Amino acid sequence: MSVPLDVYVMKDKHSDPNKWDYDLKFMGVKTSLKLKTVNLPSALKTNDGFTISIYAQGIAAKMNMLLDVSFHIEATNNRDNALFIE
Asked: Which of 34, 8, 2, 12 is nearest to 21 (CA)?
């Protein structure tokens, strides 16, 4: 069973983005997500950086089953300055 991820982004490296408080969100991500700093809104491009939180629904309530959820995060520090979430 594929478990979609919800990704929340908020400016400031000390922030705590969640489903009620965020600057940018990606809902129901089922494939890879590539975030490039050049594509982020200018409000997120500060010297204080930004924070990302990921939520995965790990319980199939109707089936009363715990789901095996895993994802991979990779950050690059080259000219792309990209973050990959798979």
From this structure: 8
For residues 38 and 52, the answer to whether their CB atoms sit within 8 Å is no
What pLDDT, on a 0 to 100 scale, did the predictor assign at position 1?
Answer: 46
Global pTM value: 0.77
Which residue range(s) make up the domain with 65? 5-85
* Integer CA distances (angstroms), 61 to 17, 58, 70, 81, 84, in order: 25, 9, 19, 38, 29
Residue 27 corresponds to which tokens in the numbers above?
């809902």
- Are the C-beta atoms of 86 and 20 separated by less than 8 Å? no
- Counting the structural domains of the chain, the total is 1
Q: What is the mean pLDDT of each run of 10 residues along the chain (86 residues)?
A: 81 88 88 77 74 83 78 71 66
